[in-house]
Specification:
mainly alpha; two-stranded antiparallel sheet; 7 helices
């Protein structure tokens, strides 16, 4: 966890959340791909906010061609290309027990959801990705737009 300077509370890093999800899917014998992981991070953030009215992580989410991406997480798992991620480091910081339970439930709920369906879901008209995407890998999807358009 890292301290969120804006609200002064502990917030997980996207990398730690991603590592936890990867390990969950490996333990379920259904390893995920980097593309699916990226979309899972986005939708986990939304679910977490809806449940807790707080940020699951505060890393920058970018609007790439195939949907929301957290660059650090993408780079960590990019060596797997489109193949299932079969191993990863342990999360560097400890996730709270509450967050681990949330993420375990989220992983189970999305076990059989395809990466392509998550991409389609993130690309719907009027949603934050659609509003932020401009064809470059530098456009940020603001948390304000995610809250306004996905969490109401």
């Amino acid at each position: 966890m890292v301290m969120d300077s804006v609200v002064g509370i502990q917030v997980n890093t996207a990398t730690d959340v991603a590592r936890f999800l990867v390990k969950e899917y490996i333990s379920m014998e259904r390893p995920t791909t980097n593309m699916k992981l990226q979309k899972l991070l986005y939708f986990a953030w939304i679910s977490y906010y809806k449940k807790n009215q707080g940020y699951l992580f505060n890393d920058r989410i970018l609007a790439w061609r195939l949907g929301p991406v957290v660059r650090d997480v993408y780079e960590e798992f990019s060596a797997f290309v489109a193949n299932p991620i079969t191993f990863c480091e342990e999360p560097e910081n400890s996730l709270s027990e509450e967050d681990r339970l949330f993420l375990s439930d989220f992983a189970r709920e999305n076990l059989f959801v395809s990466a392509s369906s998550l991409v389609t879901r993130s690309h719907l008209d009027g949603k934050p990705w659609k509003m932020a995407y401009d064809g470059r890998k530098t456009s940020t999807i603001s948390y304000e737009s995610i809250i306004e358009l996905e969490c109401q």
